[in-house]
Specification:
The protein is built from four helices and three strands. By secondary structure, the chain is of the alpha+beta class.
């Protein structure tokens, strides 16, 4: 097992997998072409979680509402455990996320990073730039001219 990753690294790849487009993740997973042997610790199941918010990011927390999530956990043949938590009811996406999470803790990590995580990160960054440029195109600069009166 490869234990050279930090909790922040794992948080980053779990977040990336959870927010990835279902179809794009499935395409990248198929291209990886490595189906590991595993046993379910918790088969994919959908449920609800309470989403909390804060006004202004620092106010008192409040319950915003519920969100549907699908979760699962599995164990590879070598005992490595992977978890998958995704928004919505996609059991297949949760399973892929759990497999990738488990494999990222093994010697397959660098291959997975190159074939799945890096393309997802690049696509996320490109989408962020596209959104920012679209928003910038509608930006209006307001300014006040001083008349010289005091």
């Amino acid at each position: 097992m490869n234990t050279t990753f930090s909790a922040e690294d794992r948080k980053a790849w779990m977040g990336l997998l959870a927010s990835a487009d279902d179809a794009r993740l499935a395409d990248l997973w198929r291209a990886f072409d490595h189906e590991p042997a595993f046993d379910w610790l918790r088969a994919p199941e959908a449920g609800g979680v309470m989403v909390r918010g804060r006004m202004g990011g620092s106010g008192a927390p409040f319950n915003l509402g519920e969100m549907t999530v699908t979760r699962c956990a599995l164990s590879l043949a070598d005992g490595t455990v992977g978890h998958g938590y995704v928004q919505g009811r996609s059991k297949a996406k949760a399973e892929m996320a759990a497999k990738i999470d488990a494999l990222m803790q093994t010697e397959a990590a660098e291959t997975l990073r190159a074939k799945i995580l890096t393309p997802l990160q690049e696509e996320r960054a490109a989408a962020k730039v596209a959104r920012a440029s679209k928003a910038a195109a509608t930006k209006v600069d307001f300014f006040t001219m001083v008349r010289g009166e005091d």
